[in-house]
Amino acid sequence: MSRIERSAIDRLLRPASVAVIGASDKPGALGTSVLNNLDRNGFGGAIYPVNPNRSELGGRACFASAGDLPHGVDCAVLAVPRPSVVETLIALAARDVGATIIFAAGFAEDGEAGLADQRRITEIAVASGMVVEGPNCLGSVNYVDRVPLTFVETDCVAPTGPGIAVVSQSGAMAAVLTTTLRARNLDVSYSVSTGNEAASGVEDYLEWLVDDPHTCVVAMIVEQFRRPAAFLNAVAKLRNVGKTIVLLHPGRSAAARQSAATHTGALAGDYPLMRAVVGHAGVIFAETLEELGDIVEIVRRCPPLAGRSVAVLGESGTFKALTLDLAEEVGLSLTPLSDADSPALREALPPFVPVSNPLDITAMGLSQPKIYTDSIGALLSDDRVGAVLAGIIQTDAQTCALKFPSILAAIQAGALVKPFVYAGLDEGAPVPAEWLERLRHGGVPCFPSADRAVRALARLARALGRRPGGSIAKKPIAGLADLSGSVPEYRAKALLAGAGLSFLPSRLCRSPDEAITAAEELGGAVALKAQSTRLGHKSDAGGVRLNLTGADAIRTAWKEMIASVRAYDPAVELDGILVEAMGRKGIEMILGGRRDPEWGAVVMLGFGGVAAEVLRDVTLVLPGQDRTAICAAIDSLAQAQLLKGFRGAPPADVDALIDLVEILGAVLAGNPRIAEIDLNPVMLLPAGEGAQILDALIELTD
What structural domains does the chain harbor? Predict the structure, then answer.
């Protein structure tokens, strides 16, 4: 839930009166720019300039200070330096001002003094009920009502229908993205830059947009979600009313996370976990600013994808090969098409042009332009195809005049029920603007690069149909109440066995003689593993011995292990040594679960072995995701081919791996005190033979 009432944000984004603190007529001054924006866009409400050195500005009486303003002004824009912000905010709160926008930087991103001032801003806002946008922001623009509360020169063009709302922590990127969208003739409803988010954040503005009739798509640029639960709640509401959220979130690299901390005062979070949770909630991720604009354009201009698999039409064999390479790289599925199963497409093509996907119609379109109409129409009407991309060579105005009418005829034959995306292959070709405008008017995005279109469609296809699951299975574990902290392997295995996980036969022993007896009962070779709450990594302490047979080997190993553990950490007190039957060889995997205090529970799975820490070939799955989603996550691993039978090896028991992931998710969902579970290694055996969990640890919260 938003902490801020909708009516309060109304006073910020739809004010009936605006005060400009630091108003000026000096060219380039922030206060001057705000006043000019309001005047140029015909703001019809009351405007109150505040400048102690002027009696009037532009024919308006000037107020000497914020404390002299009338009571109840809707929004005040603070175009003043940082040292004046807190004092001014106190005066505005005393005058019952509803909202403020703070441009000044130098707060949480600039050391302890700045952080203290930002905390004071928060206190004032909370105590007074005032909405504060910023500090360190570029303000906001309401294009619907033509209210530009920013120092960026802005000409508001009201949307003709539901448009795109831009919500960004970065003010500069909000301005850049808005410019990009408007240059593509896309309607923008609002642009809000939240900056350091002292008293209002992206979550609050998303909540406000849920019921806004002028917005159907939200484009976001966020460096840190400060209230993940509120964000996910707002996302769910937006999706329930049919609105799409597209997100650009820098932070994949450690350097980017550090930059965010210095830029907006954000703290580095767990980026992969955030991606997993937010993606599962239905948010579409973009990887670049350009891609953000591309995805948003397809979402806004086109019908939804009719399926995850697309068709591509081109005029070059090389373009066909390049598209095949790129589609494989970005994970875009291309609908298999052939002469035998595509009669309408077969009929549209010359006999010597085979049906394929990508489809290469060659240069025949120049002499027989109807090929464009009929082949595009056939692809659009094919129920197996979720979207169609045409990569066209444009060359010159004469070539365009030959091709575009037939391409337009394909979309004018009937209303588009799936995305049709146009891409010119020769960027810089002199294409008459009227052709592209007619395509856009017909609901067709136009890209200067087919690569960009392929990448954007891949992002949309990946997100298609992704919905948060219904009820999540829960497996409460008895026996946790009296435990805390690290739970050693022998106890963890006993607890998890009650949830349906199976382990190799084992015995906890407290003397060499007990271990020898246990080994005889187990039969065959055994492993000895030291057990203590202080030994999270037993191997590091020399606390593991493998493939032991016979009394002498066990007695020697016991003595050596005790000495090694004591040398590693004299404070370690052993509960005993676990004697366990040796497992079989298989494909070594890692499974684990963790509970993040902000984003919740997640299951991690990946390939283990000596290269695990180097390759980090892992993926994340949320509790409650179905088997199809888990299988897709496994397939996304770089080494997934090893599980399918590689160089004569038998296929692995992927079903058993999926079972383990489901059980781990249910255990995390059913036991809130479990902070972390580690199953490592897990040996995945051939199909039908299961998996063997060789080690297990549990970490509990107090």
Answer: 6-298 (3.40.50.720), 302-463 (3.40.50.261), 505-581 (3.30.1490.20), 587-700 (3.30.470.20)
